[in-house]
Amino acid sequence: MKLIYHFTISIILSFLLIPFYGYDSFFVLVGGYLIDIDHYIRYAFLNKTFNIKEAYRYHKTKHRTPFPKLLIFHNIELLIILAILSFFSQIIMIISFGYVIHMLIDVFHGFKTKK
Questions:
Q1: What is the pTM of this model?
Q2: Which of 35-39, 66-70, 81-85 shows the highest mean pLDDT?
Q3: What is the C-alpha separation between 98 and 114, in angstroms, rounded?
Q4: How far apart are CA 31 and CA 12, in angstroms?
Q5: Helix pair 90-113, 3-21: axis angle to 10 deg
Q6: Hey, what's the torsion of the CAs at 23, 3, 6, 103, to 10 degrees?
Q7: How far is CA 53 from CA 7, 40, 72, 82, in A?
Q8: What are phi and psi of 86, to 5 degrees?
Q9: pLDDT on residue 28
Q10: What is the CA radius of gyration of the chain?
Q11: Where are the beta strands (DSSP E) in 22-99?
Q12: Where do the DSSP E strands lie in 10-112?
């Protein structure tokens, strides 16, 4: 899924949550958008370069492989940890909400594109 879609949906959710959580609602961006930093971390680790433009181009065109790739923030373990921590922190709960939305978008996009 393109980054702009995750960003746009996260911004919209943030504004919708302002009446309930105030400016803390912008933590939705952490879970809904910034978790994609793991794509860059993986690229930098595998290619031994920190060129963000090259990483973006790589993930936009060349990363389609038949094998699943390990992304440190795109996994069920993080979801479980966030869910547990959400009971203790409102900010973590808001981040978790963004994270769940992000993952649902990725899953639906995967079904749509059959990947």
A1: 0.83
A2: 81-85
A3: 24
A4: 14
A5: 150
A6: -120
A7: 18, 10, 21, 30
A8: -60, -25
A9: 96
A10: 15
A11: none
A12: none
Q: Which of these, 100, 83, 94, 70, lies nearest to 18 by C-alpha position?
A: 94
Question: 4-23 burial string, b = 16+ CB within 10 Å, else e?
Answer: eebeebbeebbeebeeebee
Alpha-carbon gap, residue 80 to 65, rounded angstroms: 27
More confident residue, 14 or 113: 14
DSSP, res 36: G
Using the structure block, give the residue that is written with the tokens 């031994």: 48
In the DSSP assignment, the letter for residue 63 is: -
Residue pair 97/62 in contact by the 8 Å Cβ criterion: no
The three-state secondary structure class of 84 is helix
pLDDT at 103 > cutoff 50: yes
